[in-house]
Write a structure and sequence with these properties.
Blueprint: E1 5-10, E2 15-20, E3 26-32, H1 42-56, H2 59-62, E4 67-72, E5 77-80, H3 102-108, H4 121-131, H5 134-139, E6 142-145, H6 146-155, E7 160-162, H7 180-183, E8 193-195, E9 200-203, H8 206-212, E10 219-221, E11 224-225, H9 226-234, E12 241-246, E13 250-256, E14 268-272, E15 275-282, H10 286-292, H11 295-302, H12 343-367, E16 375-379, H13 386-396, E17 400-402, H14 408-417
Parallel strand pairs: 1-4, 4-10, 4-11, 7-8, 12-16, 16-17
Antiparallel strand pairs: 1-2, 2-3, 5-6, 9-10, 12-13, 13-15, 14-15
Helix pairs in contact: 9-14, 12-13
Length: 421
């Protein structure tokens, strides 16, 4: 069947779209930054960005797209009314304002559950329940993840999610159901119906299909998270294959025959067929680098680093207090001292320290009995930095390969291309 699929990625720094033909070859890619100002609200900025991406796609490929899937940041959630309008600004993936409610969640959830984290979707929902004015809370009809809401804008159906996004809400990916302890918390009416990622939900809304020239039969599918989409694009396929996403944040994923979940360290497992995708997400990453260096400076200074030599600087690079993995501490302070002797030495220290965090993360996964790491694929902008790659190679002592495709949008397109009713 000569199918063409569209994958849309909403990451931490912007949105991208990729079109694949029936042979899984990339035939078009576009990207769009989020609005510079958020005067109309974060969600409205997402809406504008989504339709700006559709505008950029060429008509010749739009008219051939038969399936669409969206990935977005994990644990970014919205509380919506009956029409799907957000009642407040979304709470983003790294928002830890509900940290004081973690003990309350821990009393209900099994020990070590992934929801027992200050940034989990469930903690955010509980925070809304306890802080929103009663009149606003009473209007709430749907708790949606970022990918769910963006999909709703395309197909018009509310209350649907996928089990990758729903993991941090408390959905049991082992039994494929909401557990009784979660349903007893008093807001089960807000929880979305959960389906397998990459399953067709409905045809594209007729108005959108007509405005942008998509086929009327184009199906919108359940989506996934941005880091899983990056994994799907990487080429990793065997137990022991790992993917490090070096984007604004640092995300590790390891394909394992064993499931590992431990909220003490911010570790959780996604279901991927008969295997498990074990990992976690650190708040360190490229966003910290851009706080100090321009893209041009990163290229210039990285070329002056000797990656065979370890940096003596022991940093923990964060934009602000708070870490998720491999240390799960919402109050962990950034450590960027002592001062380096030069910009080159400072960048070397940052890259080395981030590589040590990656090394610590994979060692922890193996210690908790995930499949041993055999090779690491790298995705994200940091994959283009040869010095960083060499530093990571020295520390990990494993083969490091560039991802087959570096963009999460391509992974979302793969998901759409493989979609089924």
């Amino acid at each position: 069947m000569n199918r063409v699929a569209l994958g849309i990625d909403f990451g931490t720094s912007g949105a991208r779209a990729a079109v694949l033909d029936s042979t899984h070859q990339v035939v078009e890619q576009v990207r769009c930054a989020y609005p510079a100002t958020q005067a109309d609200g974060i969600a409205e900025g997402w809406r504008k960005t989504l339709f700006a991406l559709l505008d950029q796609l060429s008509p010749e490929w739009r008219e051939r797209v038969s399936a669409i899937a969206i990935d977005a940041t994990s644990s970014t959630v919205l509380l919506c009314d009956a029409q799907g309008q957000p009642l407040t600004d979304p709470l983003l993936y790294n928002d830890a304002r509900g940290r004081s409610l973690v003990p309350q969640v821990a009393q209900a959830a099994p020990p070590g559950h992934t929801v027992c984290s200050s940034t989990s979707s469930l903690v955010k929902l509980l925070w809304w329940q306890q802080t929103l004015p009663p009149k606003v809370w009473a209007q709430a009809q749907f708790l949606l993840h970022q990918a769910d809401w963006l999909g709703f804008l395309l197909h018009g159906q509310l209350g649907l999610s996928d089990y990758h996004n729903a993991l941090k809400l408390g959905y049991d990916v082992g039994s494929l159901s909401y557990p009784d302890w979660l349903l007893s918390l008093g807001f089960s009416h807000l929880l979305p119906e959960v389906r397998e990622p990459g399953v067709a939900i409905a045809s594209l809304s007729p108005d959108i299909a007509a405005q942008w020239g998509f086929p009327s039969h184009c199906q919108v599918c359940t989506g996934t998270t941005d880091s899983i989409a990056a994994f799907l694009a990487s080429g990793a396929s065997q137990p022991g294959d790992a993917v490090t996403s070096l984007g604004s944040t640092l995300v590790l994923k390891l394909l394992s025959t064993t499931r590992v979940d431990d909220s003490r360290y911010g570790i959780y497992s996604h279901r991927l067929g008969d295997l498990w995708l074990v990992g976690g997400a650190s708040n360190t990453g490229g966003a910290v680098l851009r706080q100090f260096f321009s893209d041009a400076e990163l290229v210039q200074l990285s070329a002056q680093i000797d990656p065979t030599q370890a940096s003596p600087l022991d940093y923990y690079p964060l934009l602000q207090p708070g870490e998720r993995f491999p240390i799960n501490d919402p109050d962990l302070l950034p450590r960027l001292t002592p001062a380096a002797d030069s910009p080159v030495a400072f960048l070397h220290g940052l890259l080395e320290s981030m590589a040590r965090i990656e090394q610590q993360g994979y060692r922890l996964l193996e210690k908790l009995e995930a499949s041993p790491v055999q090779q690491v694929y790298t995705a994200g902008g940091g994959a283009q930095n040869p010095a960083w790659t060499a530093i990571r190679q020295r520390l990990l002592q494993r083969p490091i390969n560039a991802a087959h495709y570096p963009e999460a949008a391509i992974g979302a397109a793969h998901l759409a291309l493989s979609s089924r009713p």
